[in-house]
Specification:
Layout lengths: L2 E7 L5 H17 L5 E7 L13 E2 L5 E2 L13 E4 L5 H4 L3 H13 L2 E4 L3 H7 L7 E2 L6 H7 L4 E2 L5 E3 L3 E4 L4 H14 L1 H11 L5
Parallel strand pairs: 1-2, 1-5, 5-6, 6-10, 7-8
Antiparallel strand pairs: 3-4, 9-10
Length: about 200
């Protein structure tokens, strides 16, 4: 059975934070005969408190993205990905989104953040007692938001078992390939990295 991979989208999201993981999981699915991952995007509530599936998300530097789902229509994910970017500042105050992340993470098999998405996981209370990383410019803020978390400054990604965090932007690709390796084996991850011409490991 294909595993659902849900990628959270929000205004002022960093483009590669979501596009990198999307490419990894979608490319793996393609290379393995479309039998592994069902990758989709989900929009968090906008300024008016509602997010229709067709409400465009304005990513960092002006890219417009049309999400597949809102919170109400989102299928239950096996893997939930919370990217980062300038827009995470607003998410830290968006209780509707934080509540959805908590509820969705509780039933997901894996939860992964990219870049400052770790700040959102911290605010949602998901990093207590764990090791975590984020963009190098936001390590101190992560320490402030998650005083019970061991903040790691020297690793591309940190795997706690069920919850994973990656460092800034392109590190989300590394973490995604790591997840592919965990779920499908090293050959699948290597095949995807080679097809993407990405220097992994």
């Amino acid at each position: 059975m294909k595993q659902n991979v849900a990628i959270l989208l929000f205004d002022e999201i960093e483009v590669l934070d979501f596009a990198g993981p999307f490419e990894v999981f979608a490319k793996t699915d393609e290379l393995l005969g479309y039998e592994t991952f069902n990758v989709f995007t989900v929009a968090c509530p906008g300024p008016a408190g509602m997010a229709a599936p067709k409400r465009p998300i304005r990513a960092r530097n002006g890219l417009s993205v049309n999400p597949d789902h809102d919170f109400a229509s989102c299928p239950a994910p096996h893997l939930l990905i919370v990217p980062g970017g300038f827009g995470t500042r607003a998410l830290l105050k968006n209780e509707a989104t934080l509540s959805w992340i908590r509820t969705t993470a509780a039933s997901a098999e894996l939860v992964m953040s990219v870049c400052t998405g770790a700040l959102v996981l911290a605010k949602a209370g998901l990093l207590d007692g764990l090791r975590a990383t984020t963009h190098y410019e936001r390590l101190e803020l992560l320490r402030q938001l998650a005083p019970g978390t061991e903040v790691v400054a020297t690793e591309r990604y940190v795997d706690n078992g069920r919850i994973l965090t990656s460092a800034g932007i392109s590190a989300g690709i590394d973490c995604s390939l790591h997840v592919v390796e965990r779920l499908l084996g090293p050959a699948a991850a290597a095949k995807t990295a080679r097809q993407m011409e990405y220097r992994w490991k």
